[in-house]
Every structure is written in structure tokens, then in C-alpha cells.
Amino acid sequence: MNPAKNIFFRLLTVILAVLTPLVIIMTSVRLLMTPAFLVAEYHMPGFPDDPYGFTMQERLKWSKISITYLLNNSDISYFNSYKLDSGDPLYNDRELSHMDDVKVVVTNGRLFWLGTLVVWIAILLFLYLKNSLAGIKKALSLGGWLTIGLMGLMGVTILLSFDALFTQFHNLFFESGTWTFYYSDTFIRLFPLRFWQDAFILIAVLSVIFSLALIYAGKNKRS
């Protein structure tokens, strides 16, 4: 292999390794944006009841409607037809504004995830077709270990102060003051802090599982 081609293949290997944590973590996040996660989470032992009266069935109903909004093409008027039993809107104006902000983040995140996944698969296939199995092995292993390291760091942060992690995460994506609500607001009643803590933990667990699978796959690739 000539030097230029060797550099090119090394570069592709590095890119594949760097993209691997992004693909793994964003895939884990996407898996949580499903009704199945909502059902599992609300049935978790010790998950707090709603002190203002939502039953589990009501939580599942309204949370599924909310997740559907984040993943569909509707604008915020989607919620106009949904009323609580009291006749009040499902979400107040501040909550609707935040849901709109969340949808922007989710939509952009999904596009970024899909784009990254396409590039990751394309590089993987290219290296495979060019019989650069050693490069694939190194990239998968390095990417897997990078992901495990990142998830380990996140796990330590969750143990030390989930509140700090939660705050920094929101400050990264949302304007200050736009994502805090009263405990009596629907958003907090459906998605209390415990919900988000469990979500972060499950993202870390899924990411580590996927990483170990890739590391194992890399070790079983012949050079």
C-alpha cells in the first residue's frame, strides 16, 4: 500500500472510532423515546406517585401523547385538543414553550444521529470491502472503550450530583429559566426528577452493552 493510501485508511479508521461513541449514545437515547420505556419506568419500584392525583394510566396516556408530539411533524397546536379531566389544558403556556424547544432539540438530534449513522456505516462498509479488517477491529475497539469511559464519567457524576448534571445538560440546550416548573405543573407530574435520573442511567447501561458488543465483534475480526 502506498503512503498516501495508508494515510487515507488510517484517517478513516480514526473517524470511525470517533463516530462510534456518538452512534452508540444517540442510539441509546432514541431507544428510550418509546412507549415501552414509559411503561417500564412508571412500573419501576419506588417510582414516585403523583401527589396531585394522576393515576399510572393517566401518566401513560399523557406521556405517550407528549412523546408522539416530539417525534411527529405537528406544531405546538397539536396539544390544543388535549384537556385534563378538570377541563384545563394539558400544558400551560410555559410548558408548551418548553415542549416546543424540546422538539427543536429532538428533531435536530435525530437528524444528526441519522447522518452520523449513515457516515459510520458507509465507512465501515468501505473498510470491509477494501479488506481493511484490522482497521475495523481497531476502530470498533477504540470507539467502544471511548464510550465506556464517557459513560463511566457520567455514572460518577450521577452518583456525586445528578442535580448538577441535569442542570448543566439543560443549560447546554435551553435558555436559563425556560425549563423550570412548579411541582403542580403537568410536566413535572409526568416527568419528575426520578424519571430523568433513571433515563440517564439506562442510557449509560445500554451504551456500555453496545460498546462491549462492538469490542467483542472487533476482537473476532480477522486481520
Number of strands: 0
- Computed over alpha carbons, the radius of gyration is 21 Å
What is the count of DSSP helices, taking H or I runs of 4+ residues?
7
Tell me what portion of residues adopts beta-strand conformation: under 5%
Largest sheet: none
Specify the structural class: mainly alpha
Averaged pLDDT: 93
**Overall morphology:** elongated
* Percent of residues in helices: over 70%
What are the segments in which pLDDT stays under 50 over at least 5 consecutive residues? none
SSE order, as H and E?
HHHHHHH
Topology (SSEs and partners):
Blueprint: H1 3-32, H2 35-42, H3 56-71, H4 93-129, H5 133-173, H6 186-190, H7 193-219
Describe this protein's structure.
- The mean pLDDT is 93.
- By secondary structure, the protein is mostly helical.
- Helices cover 74% and strands 0% of the residues.
- The longest helix has 41 residues, at 133-173.
- It starts with a helix and ends with a helix.
- It has helices at 3-32, 35-42, 56-71, 93-129, 133-173, 186-190, 193-219.
- The chain contains seven helices and no strands.
Key words describing this protein structure:
single chain; 223 residues; mainly alpha; 7 helices
